[in-house]
Amino acid sequence: MEDVLDVYERPYDPTHPVVCMDETSKQRVSETRTPIPAAPGQVAKVDYEYRREGVANVFMFVEPLAGRRQVTVTARRTKTDWAHAVRDVVDRLYPDAARVVLVLDNLNTHTVASLYETFPAAEAHRIARR
Asked: DSSP string spanning 23-88?
């Protein structure tokens, strides 16, 4: 735990950004009846009934010291989805960084092995070393 706290105390360095990552799943719903908009003297009215539309996974990447965040929504929560989200963040948001310090939990899909299972070895190695 202290090691993670030490990482959070590092000064801002754009060549070594500290990026925190977490994910969650959210239920998708839609209205079964059209809401009635607000009118003068009346509040908007929305029916309590809804239709379930499945689940979406949300990856959230945050660089607190730069005030930057990246949200990626996927249909599933797999190793491959995680690997693609990490590659996108590393390549698109930090192309000039010498190394991206990624702080994340120890979910079984959040591993270097997920990168190697998803991409060719050279590509996975490149992402893991950034």
From this structure: EEEEEEEEESSPPBPPBTTB--B--S-EEEEEEEEEEEEEETTTTEEEEEEESS--HHHHHHHHHH
Q: Which of 80, 65, 75 is nearest to 111 (CA)?
A: 80
Burial annotation 85-114 (CB, 10 A radius, 16+ → b, else e): bbbebbeebbeebeebebeeeeeeebbeeb
How crowded is residue 27: how many other Cβ atoms within 10 Å of its Cβ? Answer: 10
Specify the pLDDT at position 90: 94
Q: With H, G, I as helix, E, B as strand and everything else as coil, classify residue 127.
A: helix
State the Cα–Cα distance between residues 78 and 55, nearest whole angstrom: 13
Instruction: Fill in the amino acid letter for 49.
Output: E
Residue 3 φ then ψ, to 5°: -60, -40
Averages of pLDDT over each 10 residues, the chain, 130 residues: 85 95 95 95 95 96 94 94 96 94 90 94 91
> Which residue ranges form the domains of the chain, and what is each CATH number?
2-32+45-129 (3.30.420)
3 state SS of 126: helix
What is the pTM assigned to this prediction?
0.82
